[in-house]
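Protein modeling request. Please complete all fields; requests missing the sequence field cannot be processed.
Requester role: graduate student
Desired output: 3D structure, token encoding
Chains: 1
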Amino acid sequence: MSDILEVTISHLATQGDGAARLPDGHTVFVADTLPQERVTIRLTSGGRGQLVDILTPSPHRTTPPCPLFERCGGCTLQYMDLPALLEWKTGLVAHALEKAGFEVPTTIQSYQVPLHSRRRADLAVRRTEQGIVIGLHAKGSQDVTDMTSCAVLHPTIVASLPALRATLRSLRAVHKAADLHINLLDSGLDILLSTDSPLIATDRQRLTALAEELDIPRISWQRMKTTGQSETAVQRAPVFQTIAGHQLTPPPGAFLQATPQSESAIQNAVLEALPARLGKRATVIELYAGCGTLSLPLGERCQVQAYEGYEPALTALKSVGKSRITSICRDLNRQPVMGKDLGKAEVVVLDPPHAGAKLQMRQIALGKPDYVIYVSCNPVALSNDTSLLASAGYRLETVSVIDQFLWSAETEAVCCFKRESSRRSRNALSHWG
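Delivered output (433 residues):
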């Protein structure tokens, strides 16, 4: 199809593409557009259109700050100003909760992280005729755009890339490709390198030299597409991170919230959502605890049973030795905590992966704890999961939106739900028994 049409963008869809209604009533999705813009498009296939020209730009359109924007797939919405971006993401979360069956509070707290604040990066590495390329996949492609600048990542990570390119070019372990996971911890850069070939002795020597050059305490390594734990290739200093005033050693490639600012915002939102009457002897069950981002601040307020399926992360949490936190290793996707146990807790807190809580959510609804605090990084999963709470008679108390993924369609939310004792909630659950 090669038809060129003039349309008005009505809204942004969940992945950030503009949506417009065609004369025949169908909806077309157009990348790089904003609501209320009048544009010309070329119809392609699959209900999509290619932007040809912007006739009437939105007042929220701005010049992308990164010179790699048109090639790098990391940021898809840099043409949108940041206040409008936060408002759109807040609307995504509100719509997801309404779809789940809740009345959304008129006031939603929101926070947006500053530029150059992201402390973790998952980067692709490719060996080309010109040398090593490190960066993110180009939009709609498997090609990797070499990251020479970034408006999102912390400058320390960006500054390390030239030395990383030079070292990786010399490694026999990088035959064609590698993956690079970088965490910026309190102790400095922490690197997990995954390569498509084995690491040999001279590779280890070169990684040691890189660690000396960049003052990196630890470099870990594993073979690509393997499920086993990594091994330490270089260890020249202690590795540590402080969470809620407690120092621990995260495992290689550990999951941390994207920025220190968003970590604090999420922690504060969770603590503020706790019931005021909660005493220090009260029990909170926390699911998907990780290294303790929420467990440790919660442990200052009450007793915490922290469940996590990744044993190295739980080992890091246990090393803190906080008496109010009981850590349990359990794969919640295969062996969820049962409703009868969840119902004994005053509050259930969960921060599931992007796909959501799935089986675990059903048990929460069956257990009927008085309060559920759900930390979400995916509005679609949030809507699907919390629809069970709506059917179980919960009401939505508070919502906080934290934009820690600037210029992407991803967003974080902290939602507090309170159970209302009623015949309706008991009847809604009876058919699950």
